[in-house]
Amino acid sequence: MNSKTTSLIGAALVLALALAGCGSGSSGSAGSSGSNGAGATAAYDPDATVEVGSLYEPQNLDNTAGGGQGVTEAFNGNVYEGLFRLTDDGKVESLLAEDHMVSKDGLTYTFTLRSGVKFHSGKPLTSADVKYSIEKVIAPDSQSARKSSLEVIKSIETPDDSTVTVKLSGKSISLVYNLSYVWIVNSQAKNLTTTEDGTGPYTLGTWKRGSALTLERFPGYWGTPAANKQVVFHYFTDATALNNALLTKAVDVVTSEQSPDALANFTDNGDYKVNNGQSTTKLLLAFNDRKAPFDKVLVRKAITSAIDNKKLLSSIWGEYGTLIGSMVPPTDPWYEDLTSVNPYDPNLAKKELAEAGYGSGLSFTLDTPNYDPHPTVATFLKSELAKVGITVNINVITADEWYTKVYKNHDFAATLQEHVNDRDVVWYGNPDFYWGYDNPQVAKWVEQAEQSDTADGQTELLKKVNQQIAADAASDWLYLYPQIVVASSSLSGYPVNGLNSQFYAYGIKKSGGRG
């Protein structure tokens, strides 16, 4: 998972949405999955408490109301479930939808719901809940990261309690994939920003803001029960405190290691296992492309070429992490290495600045989230850009301030942010997104890709999108985070990848130690 937000995106988005091992058993139940083989499981304690350390506390508990990366991490797949779910390697599996059919013209999807599913309140799952949940995501006030992707939905019908018919205004090859992001909630529930009513293997126990959030195994779960009785997410404000908690055994696992220097404490220690998984989290220097000077392509290209991303990545992550030169991680079908499009070259940067009319330099304010590694990255960028005549004023803000100021109000010049989702290059086809990139050709390619009849057709078009946003330096994709999960050797079955900030806890088995 990573310092993210796209989390916010998930939260807001960025924002975003580490994912979890989610194998699908024959029953399709959540508890059947597990993704990591670390640690012996023969003598695991089914009533253990798993202590999870994280830097990403929820802003609220509703992923359509700016809940943030933290609510995705703790709630997705654990408390709430969708019609479908994403596995650890990004595949889509059926979950609350037992089956589905697509009409020949690709405009009508019919979903059959799994029987015997109940919400934590005891109310049976019906098609009305699915209709409500989807409409909640695409409502005018929704802050869901997948809102725009699902606006192709024209109508939702519920012919009976177990059937949902979704009609589209146009073909959407990604509909089932996008529905995996929609949490099915009780349509009669209230105050979902502070309470919950899902169908998942856990219920919400207590949430002490600024400290911890507890999940309790749900005895009425429709599928295989969670492999542990309780999961406690402990929240920390900095990576050092988080690592100290792991070293002192206050937590059993860190969902995403953010302090590379601390890895030496764990790599040669038999009490721990260090897992280097695959990440989808991109750290962006995001420009507000609506405002000068970032409305000029040459300025954005100049800034990108003035920053030594390789040096930045090495200074923070050492041998970990990847340079990608774009919004697309290697795990996406339309990935290409585009790091050479805007190469590190200060002389080229100065030339492009001069051609853009800023030969004497320029200045801008960089809104910087206050959690690691953003302040360090901001200082590095300030130093790099000063070498080509650009003055950076660093404005440190909280995650809540970032969400309101940057994501919601678009009141910024440039910012740092992580985007955790896979397949999120399509957001560059939306000129209303917070970074304001507006290229009609890119928007058209994104639209055509979604209407493709085949995956190959979709891939070809989204590669064009990827190439064009790199050529336009729509943002500066500084690097792709590594996904490092560090856990006690007494644990197994925990997620090791960084897909969309998910952290499926139901498969975690704990042997010995605390319980």
From TrEMBL:
Residues 91-422 form the Solute-binding protein family domain. Keywords: Signal. One of its GO terms (molecular function) is peptide transmembrane transporter activity. GO terms for biological process: peptide transport. Transmembrane segments: none annotated. GO terms for cellular component: ATP-binding cassette (ABC) transporter complex; periplasmic space. The keyword Signal applies. Residues 1-20 form the signal peptide. PANTHER family: D,D-DIPEPTIDE-BINDING PERIPLASMIC PROTEIN DDPA-RELATED (PTHR30290:SF38), PERIPLASMIC BINDING COMPONENT OF ABC TRANSPORTER (PTHR30290). This is Peptide ABC transporter substrate-binding protein. It comes from Microbispora bryophytorum.
